[in-house]
Specification:
The chain starts with 6 loop residues before the first helix and ends in an 8-residue tail after the last strand. About 10% of the residues are buried. Strands 2-1-3-4 form a 4-stranded antiparallel beta sheet. It has 2 helices and 4 strands. It has one domain: PDZ domain (Pdz3 Domain). The chain is globular, with a radius of gyration of 12 Å. A hairpin with a 2-residue loop joins strand 1 and strand 2. About 20% of the residues lie in helices and about 30% in strands. By secondary structure, the protein is α+β, with helices and mostly antiparallel strands.
Length: about 70
């Protein structure tokens, strides 16, 4: 499930998509994706996604963290 209005939905991700790379690094677990997002420091992150046996690139724009 992809929550409406989330950064993932805004990037074009859909339920059933498989993220295979983030910032040109292999993604084989949730922690690998989280790491790629963390080291991106809030910048746009290219995601290689498999959908219907086709690979394409989406750009994820992570939410900026609020500083207190």
């Amino acid at each position: 499930m992809v929550n409406a209005g989330s950064p993932a939905a805004n990037a074009g991700l859909a339920a059933g998509d498989v993220i295979v790379r983030a910032s040109n690094r292999p993604v084989n677990s949730r922690s690998a994706l989280a790491h790629a997002i963390r080291i991106g420091k809030g910048d746009a992150i290219p995601l290689a996604v498999l959908r219907d046996h086709r690979e394409f690139i989406l750009t994820l724009l992570p939410e900026k963290r609020k500083k207190f």
